[in-house]
């Protein structure tokens, strides 16, 4: 988890989108646990990050029903649709003290993604400070569709990060959120 020094960098705090209706199913694989436990609904929670995972103040929640035949695979689709219908929680937004700090952070995020070697980067159409990383063909046995597309964008002092399996959706979400920022 992130320590206090990193959490203190964003002036307005660090936010996380968690895939359950907190406080239920904190931690990893929350959709899987909701389905396994026979819950009738799950959802997404936007909350402030603290040193302890999934324990910060809740800022917003969106519930979705779990059908009797749903699996965790449908859960991934619920997350994408929740992000689309709730732009506030569509991505992680980090605000830095200056535009130069934000630009440097964006460069570091991009370099980190490039270092993985799993995606190809392109500029989002019409946006000089927005980038889309789509999964490469990584060989036999690895389906690029199983890896998320990653969108990174910059507006002023804010860096936005979104991951969704569909590259078109990533571009739409990233563009929509950047347009909404001051």
Calculate the terminal CA-CA distance, rounded to whole Å.
30 Å
Please tell me what the overall shape is: globular
Mean pLDDT: 75
In the predicted model, the low-confidence regions spanning at least 5 consecutive residues are 76-90
Structure overview:
The structure is a single chain. With 182 residues, this protein is an alpha+beta fold. It has two domains: 4-89, Formyl transferase, N-terminal domain (Rossmann fold, 3-Layer(aba) Sandwich); 92-180, no CATH class. Helix content is 31%, strand content 27%. The protein has five helices and eight strands; from the N terminus they run αβαββαβαββββα. The strands form two sheets. It has a five-stranded antiparallel sheet with strand order 4-8-7-6-5, sandwiched between helices. A three-stranded antiparallel sheet has the order 1-2-3. It starts with a helix and ends with a helix. Residues 76-90 have low confidence and may be disordered.
């Amino acid at each position: 988890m992130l320590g206090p020094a990193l959490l203190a960098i964003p002036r307005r705090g660090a936010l996380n989108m968690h895939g359950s209706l907190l406080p239920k199913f904190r931690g990893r694989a929350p959709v899987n646990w909701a389905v396994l436990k026979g819950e009738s609904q799950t959802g997404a929670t936007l909350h402030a990050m603290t040193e302890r995972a999934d324990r910060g103040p809740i800022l917003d929640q969106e519930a979705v029903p779990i059908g009797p035949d749903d699996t965790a695979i449908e859960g991934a689709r619920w997350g994408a649709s929740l992000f689309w219908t709730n732009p506030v929680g569509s991505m992680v937004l980090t605000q830095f003290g200056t535009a130069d700090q934000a630009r440097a952070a964006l460069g570091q995020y991009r370099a980190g993604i490039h270092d993985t070697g799993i995606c190809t980067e392109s500029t989002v159409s019409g946006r000089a400070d927005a980038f889309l990383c789509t999964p490469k063909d990584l060989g036999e046995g690895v389906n690029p569709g199983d890896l998320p597309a990653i969108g990174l964008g910059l507006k002023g002092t804010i860096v936005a990060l979104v991951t969704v399996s569909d590259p078109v959706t990533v571009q739409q979400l990233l563009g929509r959120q950047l347009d909404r920022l001051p």
